[in-house]
Amino acid sequence: MTFTVEVDVPVPMRDGVELATNVWLPDGPGPFPALLVRTPYGKDDAGLYGNPKLPDVFALVGAGYAVVAQDVRGTSRSPGTFVPHTHEAPDSVDTLAWLTAQPWCDGAVGMWGGSYMGFSQWQAAAHGVPALRAIAPVMTSADPYAAPWRSPGGALSQDAVLTWGTLSAVRNLRRGLGEGSGDPADAGALLSGLAEPRSLHEPLPIAGRAAVTRSLPWFADVLDHPERDAFWREIAATDHGERITVPALHIGGWYDVFVGETVRSYRMLRRRGGTAAARDGQRLIIGPWSHPDGTDLGTYPDRSFGLAGSIKTAGITEAHLRFFDRWIRGRELPDDTHRVRIFVMGADEWRDEPDWPLPDTRYTDFFLDGGGRANTAGGDGVLNSATPPADATDTFRCDPRNPVPSLGGTVLAAAPGTHPGPADQAAAEAREDVLCFTTPVLERPVEVTGHVTLVLHIRSSTPDTDFTGKLVDVHPDGRAILLCEGIQRVRYRKSLTEPALLAPGTDAELTLGLGVTANVFRPGHRIRLEVAGSNFPRYDRNTNTGATIATDGTGDVVVAVNHVHHGPAHPSRLVLPVIDRPASEEPRP
């Protein structure tokens, strides 16, 4: 295979800034369809070209596509100041206009890339650029409030904001120091926080990260906008589904911080895409992966998904090429009726499905039950498909100074001695401030594939607090493997835009989204629900005061006494998307 590469081509933006861009051109006379990726991590970085979660650039060029990689404004070799999200819409639109004016481009363009690289795709798609024919967002979000910076329940995704924000602050500081600005002393503060996550996350108030804010003022903006206001709506492509007219290949991982938004974007465009092609052209792939590098094999310390769990078996490059060939080049593909391909954990196999949610999903209530002593995995909490015969209340304390630690799950940077993904929850389940509700040992397999919801009837001693939930697969050997999780901040129980504090001592109903999963609970296993008041540092700690959480210090925090009612009068319940098919009706693997 032969090709030519042009390095650091200056691409002019509407304000005169020229962004550094590399262009890979296939051998031949052209013109070619083009595939654009815009990255803040360095277009020349080897990670862009060797990341197994992304397509192989050489394969894309070899298939006859011009590949264009650009440093976003203020990063690597592009001038300006990097302010997350601020310039991605106009800069993407201007870059697409420049692309289509090049003699080597045939006017048809696709976009690709993961994580932050996906934000540019969604912004471009929401602006309806005619030349943009398809996008392939990998492990990313069309609604940055919901993921990764805050959450559908209103809590701050502290691990994501502080970890990524500190890394970005380091890059901005390094750039500033090279240009004669910035404080060298900030480098030590930032790097020490990255080296020791406890020192990064534990100090209160969370707004007191001066070194981060000086090099990345955007961090303060995130804290200043806890509600989903205009600051967030302006960059949320999900609010403008009707303007998006392109098919999208959505790729995610069950333990990725973005996975809830990955499936939400797919569903939104299936219903509200601006053209028939957009609605019909949505495709979804989800495997047993997490966001950090090194999780691509589907093998974790507490759970391995076998050779099938490796991202290599998913054929990421091949999936991109099939998708782009179909929607950019217009090539009809055989056997393209299955829009969704998912890895079903427990069965540990890939499966094709016609749509998401699976059309034969049966949402099934599992009621919280017990005598009111569900604290710890050794308590009397029961999870039952039958309506409980009597009312009871379980109680736990939520102490921001001693939060329940995040163990695995959808974290970006696990604390020392822990890891992302399917981690054993035994240490959390030994705490008195964690309620556990567990089914009897299963006699037959139960498949849970789809969106998991928790309805709680609660009372608290404070005007604001958090309730968290985790769905756990308890193995016969005692491992309690996390599947999915969520949180609801009580002040946002009715609305993410209009917070409402709770009158202490009064009852309320909460609905928690616990994310999505695909798992077969095998015979001999048990289904478990954990309920607590924190999941730190995955989410920030609620100070329980009802005031501004970001500015509350250690001396301000209040211990909340939280209650969960259950029984006929207060039907707290876990709602699971159960798939019950005869073996002969299973879609093909």
Defining key terms:
589 residues, single chain, 15 helices, 28% strand, 22% helix, alpha+beta
Characterization of the model:
The chain is of the alpha+beta class and 589 residues long. It has helices at 46-50, 57-62, 88-100, 116-126, 145-149, 158-178, 184-195, 197-201, 210-215, 218-224, 230-233, 259-272, 276-280, 316-327, 426-429; strands at residues 3-12, 18-26, 32-39, 66-71, 105-114, 132-138, 249-255, 283-290, 340-344, 349-353, 362-369, 382-384, 392-398, 435-438, 446-460, 466-474, 480-489, 507-521, 526-532, 560-566, 573-579. The strands form 4 sheets. Strands 11, 12, 13, 15, 18, 20 and 21 form a 7-stranded antiparallel beta sheet that branches. The chain has a 6-stranded mixed beta sheet with strand order 1-2-4-3-5-6, with helices on both faces. β16 and β17 form a beta hairpin. The longest helix has 21 residues, at 158-178. The mean pLDDT is 95.
Helix content: 10-25%
**Major sheet, described briefly?**
7 strands, antiparallel
Number of strands: 21
Shape descriptor reads globular
N-end to C-end Cα span: 34 Å
How are the elements arranged and paired?
Elements: E1 3-12, E2 18-26, E3 32-39, H1 46-50, H2 57-62, E4 66-71, H3 88-100, E5 105-114, H4 116-126, E6 132-138, H5 145-149, H6 158-178, H7 184-195, H8 197-201, H9 210-215, H10 218-224, H11 230-233, E7 249-255, H12 259-272, H13 276-280, E8 283-290, H14 316-327, E9 340-344, E10 349-353, E11 362-369, E12 382-384, E13 392-398, H15 426-429, E14 435-438, E15 446-460, E16 466-474, E17 480-489, E18 507-521, E19 526-532, E20 560-566, E21 573-579
Parallel strand pairs: 3-4, 3-5, 5-6, 7-8, 8-9
Antiparallel strand pairs: 1-2, 2-4, 9-10, 11-12, 11-21, 13-20, 14-19, 15-18, 15-20, 15-21, 16-17, 16-19
Helix pairs in contact: 3-4, 6-7
